[in-house]
Specification:
The chain is mostly beta strands and 118 residues long. The chain is built from no helices and eleven strands. It is 0% helix and 56% strand.
Amino acid sequence: QVQLVESGGGLVQAGGSLRLSCAASGNTFTINTMGWYRQAPGKQRELVATITSRGRTNYADSMKGRFTISRDNAKNTVYLQMNSLKPEDTAVYYCNAMTFVPGSAGYWGQGTQVTVSS
C-alpha cells in the first residue's frame, strides 16, 4: 500500500504561481511513475504531468512551459510548480503514483483545491 498526501493548493490571482507537493508513504519502494492530474467542476479528470523514477517527464500540451514537475526520491515527494496561472487552471489537483507491481491500479491522493481568480 502507498499513501499520498497533497499540499500547497489555495487561492491565487491570474498570473500568479503555486507549488504543490505530494508526499508518499508506505511501500514507496514500489513506486515507479508519479504524477499530477486535475479535475474541474463538470469535467473529467485530466493529465497534468508525470515523472518516472528516473526523472523522465511528460506534460499535457496546455501545461507545457507553465508547469514543471519534479521529484525528490529521497523524500518520496513529487512537486508541481505552476506559473502564469489562468482562471481555467482552477480545479482539484490529484497526486497519482503508479507502482512496479503487476496488476496494480495505482494510488491517488485526496486532492488539493487550486483556485485562480481573474
